[in-house]
Amino acid sequence: MAGSVHDSQLYNRLFPAGEAARLFTDSAEVRAMLLVEGALAKAQGALGLIPGESADFIHRASLEIPLDPGGLATSAAQNGVPVPGLVAAFRKAMEAPEHAQYLHWGATSQDIMDSAQMLRLRQLLALCETGLQEVLQTLATQAEAHADLPMAGRTYGQFATPVSFGSHVAAWGWPLLDLLEDLPALRRNALWVSLSGAAGTSAEFTGKGPELRAALANGLGLGDPERSWHADRGPVLRIAAWLTRLAQVLGKMGEDLVLMAQSSAGEVRLGAAGGSSTMPQKQNPVQPSVLIALARQVIGLEATLKGAGMPRQERDGAAWFTEWMTLPQLCLSACAALETARDLVPGLQPQAQTMAAVFADSLGLLHAEALSFRLTETLPRPEAQAAVKSLAQECVATGTPLADLAARAFPDTDLDGLFDPSRQMGEAPATARAFAAKVARL
Fold it and tell me: Which family does it belong to (predicted)?
């Protein structure tokens, strides 16, 4: 098995990261670092920190000269970071030492790598935003179409009270809406440029550090944190937390769908299902299982990443290396969950007859709570609850429908509509429609 399912020719379609996969390659990282070096030179030239002619040459070269990532491997192994090798290779490739000497002027490796990483994470969040909007639109369509379709609600895995399939779908969607609404603040508070020199003091920029950092931020389209964040991994952790929440929400949907599609329930049919190598009858919930597995992986990776969020002193190699090993996998797996959901949700088919059979087979016990509240019209609440509990026990023992027992025990009580699931869903239909309406306003 490959070291990562996302890099595997065998498994990458089972765990599809989509366009996000191209953001986490060696070539993409090198290209992003070159863009940062070029933008830095341009900003320094404008501020008079390096000659303007050299700044223009370096900036132009950063857009035109490719570097082979493999050629930087030996230097990266020796130095612990790829930037010294990149700078040396780029200076050589420019073939203009009079200009190349001003490349990487005053910056440190972490400035270049963190800024380059933020360029790629900005693209990642844009892809997530598009994917989220698509999933939400599809969920909203399902919620609206099935707002009035009764199904058994379950708590602790047991039948509770009636809900609607539309409200159940909306429950998957509301947290995704929250995530979408959180994106503007996340971008402001996390997509930051990094530029503060060797130990985070900007001493190398001769008093123009803040001005230069702001210019670089503007040139790259990133935020200016107005400080060094070399040893504050908050921006990275905030993005990772958002992605983890995304995977977790989709994982919950996967958990629900595995239960709803299992043989003993059959309340939902999946548009695509997997087969067994030996059992012809099997229709395995592959995509929901993928969502669950990805969520579990992302949650674990975030825990590791949080452990790396306590770097020692002004820079900590071990913490930084840990970040490199975990963040790309976390990003790709969260995006794979979103890609899987985009493909899964449109094919969901609720089975109305199966859902209705649950109410019939439960002998009306899903309406026990409603009965207890109806009886409070003539009985104190504790007495009403005790009476219904006794009737429920008789219902289970004798197989007599609860409606019949209630009519016998309380002949003068109006039980009209009490045992009709379509009239006992409370705010479930309205909740489903409210979700659909909010998505429509996006």
Answer: Belongs to the class-II fumarase/aspartase family.
